[in-house]
Structures are given as structure tokens and as C-alpha cells.
Amino acid sequence: MATSYDSxxxxxxxxxxxxxxxxxxxxxxxxxPSQRADVLFVPDxxxxxxxxxxxxxxxxxxxxxxxxxxHDAPGVEDVRACLRKILNHHHARxxxxxxxxxxxxxxxxxxPDGALIxxxxxxxxxxxxxxxxxxxALPLSLVVLSELDDSDDTLPLRLMGAGATLKAALYAxxxxxxVIPQGRxxxxxxxxxxxxxxxRGLRITEDxxxxxxxAEEFLRQQHTEGLREGLREGLREGLQEGLQEGLREGxxxxxxxxxxxxxxxxxxxxxxxxxxxxxxxIHTDGAEAVGDAxxxxxxxxxxxxxxxxxx
Length: 311
Description:
Layout: H1 3-17, E1 21-28, E2 36-43, H2 48-52, H3 56-60, E3 65-70, H4 76-95, E4 103-108, H5 113-118, E5 122-123, E6 131-133, E7 140-144, H6 155-158, H7 163-176, H8 183-199, H9 212-242, H10 247-266, H11 272-285, H12 287-296, H13 299-306
Helix pairs in contact: 1-8, 8-9, 9-10, 9-12, 10-11, 10-12, 11-12
């Protein structure tokens, strides 16, 4: 499986599930030390209501489970290896009296026709289209991501797909990120994985091109908005505290916060003259206006804005 797909699937699972139970990656299978499962998730019963909002993924994690993402369709040997892993994992955990996974979910971006035929897999009873199992006695299910319906319930799973499935899921995520649970965080995670892959010279797929310039601008705006809000909150708290002692004292209380942000944006220490300029601008323009300038201006423009007026 491609490294970028592996990273994307793990990041999505970690983002959506890490607060809802115990999540481990690269879980060693004790009976076969050379084998590892990609993700193990054990749900926290206290977070069941929150977990159920994740649609199909929430239903799949009602009990402890392993997740094995495959970019290319898994073959017969791949499925057999995953079946060994879940059985050995369950056996080893039982011997040590530790809770173990009850099912292994194979997330298949490609349709594993050969494996489905060889194992006589059948559509899973009570599950939607795209789910196949090997019978009640074997705790392994294959999820063909390209066969899932296009809906909010399936969106996190379809983001682990490839080709047209992934492309459609990305468009849906962009349009629905304000509606689905953790949608904005999920969108940020996906964008960051794509950008990281591109910076390493990797391509997620040959037919899907992500505009990394637009994506990076999106993340920059998200970061700037978070920085602006954090700065505003710090300024409000400092000024409120200083109201008891007078305006001058309030300004002096917020000045260290303003200076730290300025130095972070400039990537250097501010000069005494720039510090005095900041103090004067807080007096004349107000703390929030100064905060907006600090997070909005690029470093060169910020340096010019802080320069003392010429005599």
C-alpha cells in the first residue's frame, strides 16, 4: 500500500476516534512478531453517543476492532494474512486477559474480486452496500469503499478511498465540512496530508491534482484566525485586569503579549524603538486594532508599520 494512503487513513482514523476510546497504531501481533496491524481501536463506553455521530465509522467501532487500509485491492494472500493477524491478536490478548479486537475491517480502495471469490465472501447482513464478510465464524470484513453510497454517513470512509471515490469525497468534504461531525478538522487533516505528500515529491493519485497553493492559503487563514482570536482574548483579559488600576497600567499589562506576537511574526526580537511604537499605537488605535495588524501584515510590512516616524 502506498505510504501516502497509509498516512491519510491513519490520520483520519486518529482524528475521529482518538478521543472516543483507546487508539493504537502499528500494533504488534504477539504470536507473530513480524506482523503488525495498522490501527487498533477500543471504544470508550462513556463516549458512545459522540462516537455514534460518525455514521458508519461509528457503527463499525461499537466493539474493539483492527483497521487495515489498502490502496490497491488486497489479494488472497493479503486477506489471509489479515485473518491470521486478527485471530492471533485475539488469542494473545485473551491469554494475557487484555481486551482485544473482535473484528478486522479491511478498507479496500480497489475492489478485491479475486479475494471475494476465493473466500466466498458474501454481502454482510444488516450492513449497507460495499460490506462483505467471510461468514459468522471468521471475524473479518472487507469494505469496498468505491461501492459505498454518497452520504454524510460514509464520507469519512470514502476519504480513505482512491481515484474517483476520493475525488468525490474531497468535493463533498469541502461542501459539507460545516455540517458533518468534526468536518473542519477533518478537512484540515486531509489537506495537511496532501501537502506533506506533495512536499516529499509524492502524488496521492495520478488522476487527482490538489491545488496546494490554495490549500496552503486555506491553512494559513485558519492559523491566522486562531492566532487573532487568541491574541484578542489575551488583550481583553489584560485590559480588564488593568481597568482596576487605570488605563496606563492596563496597556502595560497587554504589552508583553503584543511584543511576543510581534517577535514571532518578525522572527526576531523587537527593538526598544519598536516597543515604544507598539505602546503608542495601543494608546491611539486600541489593542484589538494593533492585534489585527500583527496577525494580518506580512513580516516586511509589519517591520515598516513598527518603524518610528521620521523626524
